[in-house]
Write a sequence for this structure.
């Protein structure tokens, strides 16, 4: 369970996140949706304690991230796919992270196999394609077998097979009673994975709803999304 | 009974959560698994031994004046490689954290261990231990190689002479302290180029600026500069306007702690 209450984050003059409150419940995949620049990544960084909110708070199982005892065993996150040293091998990257939370080497081998990068485990990660990097990021998120997963645009760079794989994996993890939050700017993608939805625009909550309710409003899901985000899209082409 | 106690203890550790040891384990894995660590330490060692051979192998003791002979210090001359070596090692220390910022690994690190001052302390401990080991090995190798090529009539230094062992040990410890200072600077500046620039300024540019001051001011202040302190640590013959070796080590350690404290403060306050 993730609870955000009144989150505010400014960068210089812009309000990246503005009084944002929402709940992410266990047992279903929750889609975190919004146009580019809506504040999705900033919010995820605040959940992880990487960025400090200017106001408000966010807790995971009623504790702030900084108070977690074994952070990787409680929360797994994929924030940006290329967040590793290009000269280090995939296996070394995961082994180092595992050491910090007393996770076994056997588990490192497991997540390498789960994400299908075991054959490339001893190659330098800087040579990885975007899809491979994404898989390494997901392997890192799964490392501690956490109850809470946060994934920022996880399907970026994945091929159709990879997209289907991650979709099924996330559904399976949620079905085990885990809390799964997945951000995307593509409603069509999220609709196939998530049941619950949090829609934000310009840093504000537009809707906390479900895919079913949003599509029941009439018209296609995409139109419903555009209606919701109308007027809060910062970067749009000329019509 | 004893196995019970052991398993209880490890269960306690599991309950207690991640701590210094676990984070140091991560930092050691990270440092160990990039090629640049070993190439940089290799170049540093080569630089230490190479300069010692070059300098002591071409010493012109026979043509020296009496004054030069009196101040001839074959021990400190073994460590001229430190002049360049300190730059390599300071850069190495800064890179240990700036590459994490440039690659984004720092977010994975802080996600794994959100207590940032603890992460910096663990990094400093691992970096300090590795550079101390490399420093001592290089210092002894440079000293022994240098004395071996020093030709008569120049007097050779031996480890048994007063102050010599101290100078060799200090020559090995100096790089570790510079590495930790570099790490602190890296944590503050975050960008590789900027941090390297700051390390170069501290070691090479600052002495030039001080050189523009009057001699009396210079004599009072220059002894507090890292590069002058290097000289104080490795000299056996007494030289004017230097702090004693013990005091030098103390002050330099203070600099290292100060750099770390400032780095930890900045890391804890700024967004990653």
């Amino acid at each position: 369970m993730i609870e955000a209450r009144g989150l505010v984050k400014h960068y210089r003059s812009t309000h990246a996140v503005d009084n944002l409150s929402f709940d992410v419940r266990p047992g279903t995949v929750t889609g975190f949706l919004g146009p580019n620049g809506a504040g999705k990544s900033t919010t995820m960084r605040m959940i992880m304690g990487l960025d400090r909110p200017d106001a408000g708070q966010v807790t995971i199982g009623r504790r702030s991230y900084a108070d977690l005892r074994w952070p990787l065993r409680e929360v797994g996150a994929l924030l940006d796919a290329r967040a590793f040293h290009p000269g280090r091998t995939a296996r070394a990257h995961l082994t180092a992270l595992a050491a910090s939370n007393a996770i076994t080497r056997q588990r490192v081998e497991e997540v390498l196999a789960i994400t299908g990068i075991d054959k490339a485990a001893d190659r330098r990660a800087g040579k990885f394609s975007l899809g491979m990097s994404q898989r390494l990021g997901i392997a890192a998120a799964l490392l501690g077998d956490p109850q809470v997963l946060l994934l920022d645009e996880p399907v970026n760079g994945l091929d159709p097979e990879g997209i289907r794989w991650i979709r099924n994996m996330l559904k399976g993890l949620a079905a085990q009673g885990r809390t799964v939050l997945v951000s995307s700017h593509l409603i069509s993608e999220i609709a196939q994975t998530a049941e619950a939805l949090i829609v934000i625009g310009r840093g504000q909550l537009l809707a906390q709803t479900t895919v079913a309710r949003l599509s029941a409003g009439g018209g296609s899901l995409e139109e419903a999304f555009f209606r919701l985000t109308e007027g809060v899209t910062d970067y749009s082409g000329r019509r | 009974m004893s196995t019970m106690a052991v398993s209880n203890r490890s269960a306690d550790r599991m309950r207690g959560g991640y701590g210094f040891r676990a984070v140091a384990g991560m930092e050691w894995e990270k440092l160990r698994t990039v090629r640049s660590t070993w190439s940089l330490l290799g170049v540093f060692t080569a630089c230490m031994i190479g300069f010692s051979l070059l300098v002591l192998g071409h010493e012109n003791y026979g043509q020296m004046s009496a004054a030069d002979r009196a101040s001839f210090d074959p021990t400190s001359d073994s460590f001229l490689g430190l002049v360049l070596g300190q730059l390599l090692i300071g850069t190495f220390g800064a890179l240990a954290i700036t590459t994490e910022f440039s690659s984004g690994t720092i977010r994975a690190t802080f996600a794994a261990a959100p207590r940032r001052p603890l992460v910096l302390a663990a990094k400093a401990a691992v970096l300090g231990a590795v550079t101390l080991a490399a420093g001592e090995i290089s210092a002894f190798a440079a000293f022994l190689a240098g004395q071996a090529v020093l030709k008569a009539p120049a007097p050779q230094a031996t480890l048994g002479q007063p102050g010599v062992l101290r100078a060799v040990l200090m020559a090995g410890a100096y790089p570790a302290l510079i590495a930790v200072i570099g790490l602190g600077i890296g944590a503050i500046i975050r960008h590789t180029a900027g941090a390297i620039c700051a390390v170069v300024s501290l070691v090479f540019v600052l002495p030039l600026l001080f050189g523009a001051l009057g001699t009396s001011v210079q004599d009072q202040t220059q002894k507090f500069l890292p590069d002058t302190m290097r000289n104080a640590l490795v000299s056996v013959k007494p030289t004017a306007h230097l702090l004693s070796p013990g005091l030098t080590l103390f002050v330099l350690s203070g600099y290292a702690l100060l750099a770390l404290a400032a780095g930890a403060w900045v890391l804890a306050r700024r967004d990653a």
Summary: The first helix of chain A runs from residue 40 to 47.
